UniProtKB/TrEMBL annotation:
InterPro entries from the UniProt entry: SAM-dependent_MTases_sf (IPR029063), UbiG_MeTrfase (IPR010233)
UniProt entry keywords in alphabetical sequence: Methyltransferase, S-adenosyl-L-methionine, Transferase, Ubiquinone, Ubiquinone biosynthesis
UniProt GO BP: methylation
GO MF term list: 2-polyprenyl-6-hydroxyphenol methylase activity; 3-demethylubiquinol 3-O-methyltransferase activity; polyprenyldihydroxybenzoate methyltransferase activity
Biased amino acid composition, Polar residues: 9-20
Cited function: O-methyltransferase that catalyzes the 2 O-methylation steps in the ubiquinone biosynthetic pathway.
Record flagged with keyword Methyltransferase: yes
Family: Belongs to the methyltransferase superfamily. UbiG/COQ3 family.
Enzyme class: transferase
Amino acids binding S-adenosyl-L-methionine: 71, 103, 124, 168
CDD domains: AdoMet_MTases
Name of the protein this chain belongs to: Ubiquinone biosynthesis O-methyltransferase
Length: 279
C-alpha cells in the first residue's frame, strides 16, 4: 500500500534542504572516471566546509533537524506497509534489513534508521562529513558502517544490494542527476525501496526555497541551492524509467510557521518526497 497525497492538510512550504548530499574533499574520487562522475566539485567543497556543524540544532543545518522527524516517519511508515510481514509494534521492526543512506552527511538520517533496526551503511563523498558521522555514532553507542565514497565507487565494488536506499536532499546538488539516480537504483535489491527527496523547480520554490529561505529568513547560507538544479517529479519519473524501479506519486512536505513544524502535504510545489519500488 502506498502513501498518497489524498487528504493530507496543506500548509505553507519552505525549503528544508541544507545540502545533505554534502560531498567530498574531492581527491581521488573525482579523478576516477568510473568512481565519481556525478559529483559537483563546487558543491563538494562548500558542504565539506560545514562538516563540524551537522549536529548543531541552531546552526546551518537547523532546517534539516526540524525536517527530520517528518521524513523519518515517512520512511518508517512506507517501509512497514511495503514489507508487510514486519511487526510495526516492534521497537526494532527492521532488524537484519540493509539500508543505504546516500549522501549521509553527519548521520542525521542514518542514526534514527539504525535505532529502528536497519543495518545501516552511510555513504558520503566527504571524508570530513564521515568523520563527524562516525564520532557522533560512537558517542551515541550506535554501530553504523560509514564510508567516505561516492555512490559510483560503492556500486563498482560489488557491494551486496540493499533493501532500502535513501537519496534524501541529495540529487539537487549533483552534477548529473540522471546517472546519479540510476546508480542509486542499481543498488536496490528486488522487492526493495528507494526514497528520493528534493525540491521542485517552480516559481513558488524560487520564491520560498531561494529568496525566502536564503535571503529573507536566512534559514540556510546564501548560495546553498541553485534553482536551475531543482527537479520536477516528472523528471525523477523519467530518470527512473531507465531503471527497474517504479515510482509512486510524489508527496509534498510543507512547513507550518505557526506550529513551527513540517508535515506531509498535498502541495508538491516546493519540497516533495517520492518512493520507488522494485517489484
Amino acid at each position: 500500500m502506498a502513501l498518497t497525497r489524498k487528504n493530507i492538510p496543506e500548509t505553507q512550504a519552505f525549503t528544508a534542504s541544507g545540502g545533505e548530499n554534502s560531498a567530498k574533499d574531492v581527491t581521488d574520487a573525482t579523478n576516477s572516471p568510473a568512481s565519481g562522475f556525478s559529483i559537483d566539485e563546487a558543491e563538494v567543497a562548500r558542504f565539506s566546509a560545514l562538516a563540524a556543524k551537522w549536529w548543531d540544532v541552531k546552526g546551518e543545518f537547523a532546517p534539516l533537524h526540524k525536517f527530520n522527524p517528518t521524513r523519518v516517519r515517512f520512511i518508517r511508515d512506507t517501509c512497514l506497509m511495503h514489507f508487510s510481514h514486519l511487526d510495526g509494534d516492534d521497537i526494532h521492526p527492521f532488524d537484519h534489513m540493509r539500508l543505504l543512506d546516500v549522501g549521509c552527511g553527519g548521520g542525521l538520517l542514518s542514526e534514527p534508521m539504525r535505532r529502528m533496526g536497519f543495518e545501516v551503511t552511510g555513504l558520503d563523498a566527504s571524508e570530513k562529513n564521515i568523520g563527524t558521522a562516525k564520532a557522533h555514532a560512537t558517542q551515541d553507542g550506535l554501530d553504523i558502517r560509514y564510508l567516505a565514497q561516492t555512490v559510483e565507487q560503492l556500486a563498482a565494488s560489488g557491494e551486496p544490494l540493499f533493501d532500502v536506499v535513501l537519496c534524501m536532499e541529495v540529487i539537487e546538488h549533483v552534477a548529473d542527476p540522471r546517472e546519479f539516480l540510476k546508480t542509486c537504483a542499481s543498488l536496490v535489491k528486488p522487492g526493495g525501496l528507494m526514497f528520493v527527496a528534493t525540491l521542485n523547480r517552480t516559481t513558488k520554490s524560487f520564491a520560498l526555497g531561494i529568496v525566502a529561505a536564503e535571503y529573507v529568513l536566512r534559514w540556510v547560507p546564501q548560495g546553498t541551492h541553485d534553482w536551475n538544479k531543482f527537479l520536477k517529479p516528472s523528471e525523477i519519473e523519467d530518470f527512473l524509467s531507465e531503471t527497474d524501479l517504479t515510482p509512486d506519486p510524489a508527496v509534498g512536505v510543507s512547513y507550518n510557521p505557526i506550529l513551527d513544524q513540517w508535515a506531509l502535504s498535498n502541495d508538491i510545489a516546493v519540497n516533495y518526497m517520492m518512493v520507488a519500488r522494485y517489484f
